[in-house]
Design brief:
Layout (H helix, E strand, L loop, with lengths): L5 E4 L4 E16 L2 E12 L5 E2 L2 H19 L4 H10 L4 H8 L5 H6 L6 H12 L1 H10 L6 H18 L3 H12 L5 H15 L10 H17 L3 H5 L13
Antiparallel strand pairs: 1-2, 2-3, 3-4
Helix pairs in contact: 2-5, 5-6, 6-7, 8-10, 9-10
C-alpha cells in the first residue's frame, strides 16, 4: 500500500495519509483456534486507526485462509482441481454429491463449505474410485454428455493408476527408453539395485530388495530375456530371508 495514500480520519475530520503495520493475532472461530497475520492502518497525523477497504479485504482473506487450514477445510483451488481432474462442471458435480445446484459455484467464489461437504469433496479429490462410485450411483441426475465426459476422465485415471506400482514403474522405464538392448536392460537393473540399496551378492533380501527383484523380473519378462541372463543369477536362487 503506497505510503502517500490518504483516507478519511474520523478524529482529524479530513483526509490524511496513513501508515500500515502488520502483526500476528490469535483468533477463535467456531471453536477453532488459529493465528493470522493482519494489517492495520493508522493516521500519520494523530495515530488513530483508520478504515481502508483494501486492507480490510486482505485481512478477511488472511483470516479465511488460516481458518481453512486450521479447520482442515477444502480450499477454493482444491475444489477447482476436482472439476479439472474429473472433467466435470460445478452443477453436475453438485448434483452427484447431493448438494444444492449452486453449492460448488459458491465454494469456487470463496464461500466456506460445511465440514460435511468439505469432507466429501476431500475424499473424491483424493480417490478417483470414490468419485466413480458417486458418478455411477448418480448418473441419472446429470446429462448424458456430462456423464460421458466425467466417465472418460475416470477411465483415463483408472488406466493410469489401476495397475500395480511395479508395472507402472516398468512401463515408465520402457516409455522413456528409446531402445532397450540387453546391455541397456542390465544397466537399468544395476541402477535399481543402487537406488534401493541392494547388496551385490543379493544374499539377504529385505522388503525393498524383494520389490526390486520383482521389478527386475518384470522388466526381463517384458523384454523377452530371463532374469538369469540380465543379472547373472536367477532371483529365485538367491532370496534368503534376513534374520529378525
Amino acid at each position: 500500500m503506497p505510503s502517500t495514500s490518504t483516507v478519511y480520519c474520523i478524529k482529524c475530520g479530513c483526509e490524511r495519509p496513513y501508515s500500515v503495520a502488520s502483526s500476528r493475532e490469535v483468533i477463535s472461530v467456531k471453536g477453532v483456534v488459529f493465528s493470522a497475520v493482519l494489517m492495520s492502518a493508522h493516521c500519520r497525523e494523530c495515530g488513530e486507526e483508520v478504515y481502508v477497504p483494501e486492507i480490510n479485504d486482505e485481512n478477511v482473506k488472511s483470516r479465511e485462509a488460516e481458518y481453512r487450514r486450521a479447520a482442515k477445510l477444502i480450499t477454493v483451488e482444491e475444489v477447482d482441481g476436482i472439476l479439472k481432474k474429473y472433467n466435470i462442471g460445478a452443477c453436475p458435480l453438485a448434483k452427484l454429491l447431493g448438494f444444492g445446484d449452486i453449492t460448488i459455484t459458491r465454494y469456487l467464489d470463496g464461500q466456506l463449505p460445511s465440514r460435511a461437504n468439505s469432507d466429501i469433496l476431500l475424499r473424491i479429490l483424493a480417490s478417483h474410485k470414490t468419485m466413480e462410485e458417486y458418478l455411477e450411483k448418480g448418473k441419472d441426475k446429470i446429462t448424458a454428455i456430462a456423464y460421458q465426459k466425467c466417465r472418460g476422465a475416470l477411465d483415463n485415471l483408472l488406466q493410469l493408476y489401476g495397475e500395480g506400482k511395479i508395472e507402472l514403474v516398468t512401463r515408465y522405464i520402457l516409455f522413456k527408453a528409446k531402445d532397450i538392448t540387453p546391455m541397456a536392460l542390465q544397466k537399468l537393473l544395476y541402477y535399481v539395485h543402487q537406488i534401493l540399496g541392494v547388496d551385490n551378492d543379493l544374499r539377504f533380501i529385505s522388503p525393498a530388495e524383494k520389490r526390486q527383484n520383482m521389478l527386475s523380473t518384470y522388466l526381463c519378462l517384458i523384454h523377452g530375456s530371463s532374469p538369469t541372463k540380465a543379472c547373472g543369477k536367477p532371483f529365485c536362487d538367491v532370496i534368503v530371508e534376513r534374520p529378525r
